[in-house]
Structure formats: C-alpha cells, structure tokens
Amino acid sequence: MTGEPLIGVTIQVRGKASGTVTDFEGNYILPNISPDATLEVSYVGMKTQRVVVNGRTVINITLSEDAEMLSEIVVTGFGLSQRKESLTSAISVIGSKDLSRSKSSTASGALVGKIAGINSRQQDGRPGATTNIQIRNMGAPLYVIDGIQSDAGQFNNIDFNDIESISVLKDASAAIYGVRAANGVIVVTTKKGMRNSKNTVTVNSYYGWQSLYDFPKPATAETYIKNYIQSQTVQGATNYRYSKEDYEKWRQGTEKGYQPFDWYDYIWEVSPQTYVNANVSGGSDKINYYLSVGNLNQDAIIVNYGGFTRTNVQMNINANITDKLKVGGGMNGRIEKRINPGVPGGDDYWLPRFGTYRNLPTRRPFANDNPLYPTLTSTEAGTNFAWLTYDLSGKYEDTWRVVQLNFDAEYEIIEGLRAKALVSYYLANQRMDNQEYTYKLYGYDENTDTYPVIFENTNPWRERRQGYNEEITTNIQLSYQKQSGEHNIAAILGAETIKRDTPTTWVHSIPTSNALHLIDYETMDTYDDTGNNTQARLGYMGRINYNYSNKYLLEFSGRYDGSWKFPPNHRWGFFPSASVGWRISEETFWQESKMTEIFSDLKLRSSYGLLGDDNISGYRFY
Q1: Model confidence over 274-292: pLDDT tens digits?
Q2: How far is it, in rounded angstroms, from Cα 439 to Cα 458?
Q3: Tens digit of pLDDT for each residue in 66-114?
Q4: Which of 32, 37, 152, 430 would you label with 513, given CA atoms 20 to 30 Å apart?
Q5: Is 63 in a helix, a strand, or coil?
Q6: Angle at 448 between CA 443 and CA 453, to 5 degrees
Q7: What DSSP line would sit under 335-382, residue for residue?
Q8: Which residue, among 409, 335, 402, has the nearest Cα to 147 in the 3D structure?
Q9: Torsion angle of alpha carbons 133, 138, 144, 149, nearest 10°?
Q10: What global pTM score does this model have?
C-alpha cells in the first residue's frame, strides 16, 4: 500500500560487503559509510533503486512497484536461475498470479493457454482427468519439482496454488537433464515464504458446477419413429414395424406402453466442484516458511457415479544456521481417491456415452416401471443405468497416498564458491479395489403380473491391485559466481543419482456371493507379482555462463548420463549444449537511434544442443 513501511528491504552499499535490512517499522541503520557512497535498495516486487548518500545522515526512500520483476527471474534448471535479459535459450516462465486464476482440477490444466509453445489436449472430462502437455508438439516432457525429477502424475496432482513459478525449457537449455530431456523440461518451484515478513494467512475457495457442453442429444421417440418409418419406406417395406396409430401414440406419450424415455437426462446431471485452500507464510531475518493445506472435490456428471477427491499438504522451511550455512526442508503430500459403481468393461466412463445413444427412446429402464426390476434396454446389458448403482453393481475405488520429502543444505566455502547437497525420498502407495456383482434383469408378464428373469450375469469380478513407487534422489553441486568490473561468470558442477522401485501385486477372485467383499484363498484364481522393477540413473553435469557488460552472453553446458534401460556397453551418453546472445539494444549506436522507440529491449540469440530420451515404452535390452 502507498505510504506503508516495508519490512525486509535490502539496503546494500554498492561495491562493498556492508549492508542491512529494514525493521518492522521500515527503519534501517548503516554505520561507518563513506559520504559519497551509493546505496542499492531492493525489495521483491519493487524496482531496485540506487541512491547517492551525498553526505546525508538521514535518507528516506520511496520504492515503486515493479510488476515485471518476478517474471524476470527465470529458473533455468538444476538449481540455477538467471535474470530474463541474460538468457540465451528459449525459456518461458509463468508466475503464481497467472496460475491461480485457473479453476482446473490439475496443474496441467492450469497451464493451458498461458505459455507460448505449449500444446495441450484433455482427452476427456472425467473427474481428476489430466491434460496432456507437450512442448512444441514433441511428446511428454520431463517434470522437475523443487529440483527433483518427477513424473506427470506428481506434477498434475500438486496444488497449483502452492506453485511460485513454472519455467519451461524448450530448446538446448534442457540438455542439463540429459537422457530425459528430448521433449523439453517443465521446472516447478513451490512457494517458500519471505524473509522479514509478518505471518500471513491466506484462504482461497470456490464452488462451481459442471455440466455437459455442446454434447449432442439423442433423438426423441417421435423423431426416432418418424425416421424409422421413412427408412422402411425407402427400403420398400410392406410390413411396417410402427403403424400410423403407433406413431401418434408415441408422439402424444401419455398411453401406457407408449411413453418415451429421455436417456440423456437420466444418465447425465449437473454436478458440483468445490475447492478450498488455506496457507500460512512468513519469516524473520534468519528463517522463512510456507505451510498449505488444500482439498478438491469434483463430482462426476454421471448419475450414481462418485467422483474425484484430493487433499494436498505442502510445507517448506529454509533457515540460516550460520552466515555460511543454510538448510532447508520440504514436504509435499496428498491423498487422492476415485470412486464409482462396479461397471462392467474396461472403461467405466465409456459406458455412459455408449448407453446414451444405444438405448432407444422407446425403451424404459424398469420393467412395468417398477423400480425393483431393472430390465434389458438393448443387446448390451450394461447400457441400462438403472442397475448401475453401488447396491446392485458393486464398487470401484482407487486410492493413492503420496509423500515426497526433500532436505537440502548449502555452505559457502569462500566468497562466490558454494557447495550444495539435496536428498529426496518419494513414496506413492496405491490400493485399487474393484468388485462387480452378479445381477439379473427382468421382463414383465402382464397376464400373470410377474417379472420373469430375461438376463442373468453369473460371472462376478473381484480384483485388487496394491503396490507402491519408491524413489530416492541425491544431488550434489559446486557452484561459483564472480563479478569483476563488466565481466560476470557463473559456473556449476554436479552429480545426480535416482533409484526407483515399483513393486506391485494384482489379485483376482470369484466371490461366491455379492455380500462377500474379502478375498480368500478358496475363491482366488490369479495372483500376479511384478517384482521391484528397479530403475536407476546416474548423471554428471556442468554449466558455465559468461556475460560482458550485460550485452554479450555465452553459455556452455553438458551432462554425461547413464540409464538402466540400455545394455551395459551402451548405457552412457554425453549431451552437450551451447548458446550465445547479443543484447543489441544495449549498444550505444542503438540507444542513440530512433530504433529505441520501436524496440526498447532487443536480443539476438542462438543455441545448439544434443538431448536424449529413454522413455521407450516396453523396451527391454535383455
């Protein structure tokens, strides 16, 4: 707010090591400085100012907002960041403000339409459905969350209101991730809280409705019968299935046996989607923290179906133990659940669409309209949604419990030279239970007023999949940064290891009764154990950045990567990249020309790199 004191503003004596930050009332003290010194004043979200002391002892400074500042800092991968003007690669960034405007249920959905070069496609609208993201139409990218290589599932189900920024590496800049970077890299940084800031509590919530949009409705009984008669006429039929009297009765729809049925309204409905998130953040001059809890509940728009629920927890804390040692920790956890009736077939969300069009408007869901006796409405028994309830058809439930723990430490060895280590543990546990009951469908005998069985399913289905994904990642880095006059250099060396196990078991049984939900040995006919399926990767990488006078830019990087997917004698590969840039708008001849009225900031850049891809489905070198 205008006129309000700012806490934690950094005030540095230009060219010196001395500096300070403002207190809770916006005051600061800088003793023993030269009368002709220059102060550099900076604060997140504000424009940096340089103020000449000119012998003054009291200097009041007013900062102005810089809306573009946050977007100017770009995370370039593997713990590195640069200001936007010094980039020599194709990297786009989006901040939390743009992400938070979305009402999508997934982080991938929140990216749609916000970054150039991102192609997106959501295949269906089932609860919790993700959006397929591709960078420049090149396939599935690699996701890196807080420095840890992750998969699409981890990215999609993070609460995007906990994300500080997302950087998209589109070209040779992705070579720092080697054998997994061919399709580009999406680098996610979660919120950490700010130093020297008050405790801030934020609550974000919404309530919305979902419905089918532009989904064609099937023909009414009148339209169906009219066109059926016309079809038979064209074919030269003499024995019509529907007479003129039948057509009039169906058109009026009042006489018993001639009452049409709207399967579209019976199967589909308007459903709510709710979301609530609460977070608290803050910090002192030595520590900063962020804690968030969020819950999403997305009901299905199909009658009798359940939906998708997800609860997220995000925690980050960073602290200065000494002037040279910094440590940090983070936790990202979630519980997500999908639930619906025990629908026959492989895709439970295909059957509602099929039933909408397969069931004729002249067929009703219950024999004699008696809700105790569902009937056969087509040649496919599963199209009648009258019996697709938890009581009659069973229950499908898929639950994931996921946690990722990160710990990092950074130590300044000498000025400009830092060592950093990062360790991460990831565990995702799945339990899927599915039981499909036996059932009967009935007809109606008007003469005896009875309901004979006209179809019976005597093949029950009971299955359970239980397993987990466990991954341990370690990352060590040695970085150096030095500025000497107009020369700026930054370099990093590092190594990274990833080990992943995915043990899973799948059990199938044939229950003797719908009421028996437990799986016992006598009814079990299949037990599959997939084993650990251990995956391992090891990589060594380096990068060096140089710029002169913030005009001439140069970057080299490379990664020597090994993947378990390939034979021992072909397991390693080297992935180099190089890029150059020229900020022509910083040249004197440009600034003295009228071109500045057209281009205030113009940069020419070029990059080349070699990237790898070991995401080869089903490939086994042995």
Answers
A1: 999 999 999 988 899 999 9
A2: 7
A3: 645 544 667 776 666 777 777 788 888 898 888 988 888 899 999 988 8
A4: 430
A5: coil
A6: 25
A7: EEEEEEE--SSS-TTTHHHHHHHHS-TT--SBGGG-TT-B---SSSGG
A8: 409
A9: 120
A10: 0.84
